[in-house]
Amino acid sequence: MAHVLRALELNGCCILEDCGTSQEAAAALPARIFGSPGLLGSPAPAEVSEQVLAARGIAKDDNFRAHTDGHAYGDKFPDYFLLLCSVASDVGGGNFLIDGYALLEDLASEPDTAWVPPALAERSVNQTSRLPSVTPVLVFGPGGRRALRCRLPGPPMAFAAQRVSEASETPDEDAKMLAIYHEAIQKAADRAERVFLRPGDALVVDNYRMFHGRDPYTDPRRLLWRCWIWTTASRGLPEVPENELQSTPGNAAGIVQPDEGPSKRQRGE
Ligand SMILES: [Fe+2]
What's the number of domains the chain is made of? Predict the structure, then answer.
């Protein structure tokens, strides 16, 4: 899988074909891609479907705006994730990806916004409504690897956007920084190419570098498996017992918990 790692290094994401469509197939992928020395943790794949996500406030009709995954884990969010497509929707459901590093370069190259990238690494903002995390948008991993977080104002409305910290002494400047950052991301999302995963396709994403989102779709049977992945190049595993690590966001009460259990369809009924 050295070619996959090279593709991730170069492009921040890649698609692997013919990976199977089952939860077991998804569970095998992180070790296949990153190998055992490189893999720190990869909890069981979680179901990405209308059935599971609607209960978490994410509907298929939502235009799921650009974000990074794993805000539930604060600044120890997973450095990679993958989505294995099991059932595609014939209409809609395109995923888009935005290169966050390129976006920082674009902001730095414009006189009006050149102050924003350094500010993103210095000014702490409120990152999430789940685990308390008041840290800069841009933090760093081993070897200075840049780790960006992104959460635009909804939809889905279940997720809070990155926002000015209640403790900020410079709330106006922080608000301006976030507004410029989010506006640049939304513009990039509007013009981003859409990726339509087919059954057996696995989309692997550098979650420190890339932002992603999803267009609305029509088929309620659409199903993907999500794996959150922590590697040795990440900022480390969250401080929870490894067997309690999940590939799912927190619920409305802020608790990170597994899915409710396989759906009837998954049990083959
Ligand atoms: Fe996501």
Answer: 1
Phi, psi (degrees; rounded to nearest 5) at 83:
-125, 120
Q: How far is the CA of 106 from the centre of ligand 1 (A)?
A: 24
Distance 212 CA to ligand 1 centre (A): 6
Helix extents (H) in the chain:
2-11, 23-38, 50-53, 100-109, 116-122, 171-191
| Cα–ligand 1 centroid distance for 131 (angstroms) | 17
For residue 112, being part of any structural domain is answered with yes
Amino acid sitting at position 13: C
Q: Would 157 be classed as within a structural domain?
A: yes
pLDDT digits (tens, 9 = 90+) for 22-70: 999 999 999 999 997 899 999 999 999 988 888 777 888 888 999 999 9
Tell me the C-alpha distance between 210 and 73, whole Å: 17
**9 CA → ligand 1 middle, Å:** 20
Residue 260 within a domain: no
Beta carbons of 74 and 198 less than 8 angstroms apart: no
